[in-house]
Amino acid sequence: MKNNMMVVALVGSLVATFAPGQQKSSVASPETDLVRSEMLVSTKWLADHLKDPDVVILHICDGFSDYKRGHIPGARYLAMKKISVDIGPVSVELPSVQQLQQAFSELGVGDNTRVVIYTTGWFPYAARAWFTLDYLGHGDKATLLDGGIDQWLAEDRPVTGGNSPEAPAATFTPHVHDDYRALFDEVKADVDAKPGEEPEQIVDARPPRGYTNGHLGGATNIYWQETLVSEDAFRLQPVHKLRALYASRGIVQGKKVVTYCVVGLQASHAYFLAKYLGYDAAMYDGSYQEWTAKNMPVVKGEAKR
Questions:
Q1: Do 111 and 147 have their domain in common?
Q2: CA distance 150 to 156
């Protein structure tokens, strides 16, 4: 996620076209400077770049029939099963790097491709695709569509049906960031931290009811849908509200954030948000499903521990 010349150029071209509420503040501050506005792209920007050969639009969902019913012109179909596998009792895990490399290469995603991701399914699907690209070292070239296809349709922009457009395979070179995926031992060390130690900040992205029914010790509940303007469309709250939400739950800058949920989907949204706000972050892919499969203790109720 290092800034380079290409990213700087892209940020300059994108900031002016973000939807209201997503623009950087005109008043500089340490916190606004950390916001990675380039991680969201507006519907206007996408409409202006539909025919850009360096832009690939990915439509991710569970079933091809959903894609065929209507997708943004030129969007390529990415099935969830292409970027996730079930391993024993744990669902939606990252497959091998080789499998992921092949999946993106076949879709025409190359080393210099600008990727725009949206879903017509559950919003965290799109964030899961972004997390996967970030894990593979391509997060600085990937964005989510602000407002999603709902905003696209609300603006009466075109959609099309039919099959995914054919694209020549591209050279996609992984640069894996293992530290972006938290494994069981890392999370256990945070949960087992003794008084006076400085564990990572664990964020539980599930609904409050799931949290109170049982959560990892020390975890803070920030339900992923709290971060949206509306539950009916993918649009993040303005930055100042997201900052206030994090502050109200005790999440601070300067300490790593580790997100989890049930299987790593809601947690992918929380991971995306943490990165968007400038936090060092990782996603616990095994999440609650792996934790309980290992018969690890959980905390019930609203207390963190």
A1: yes
A2: 10
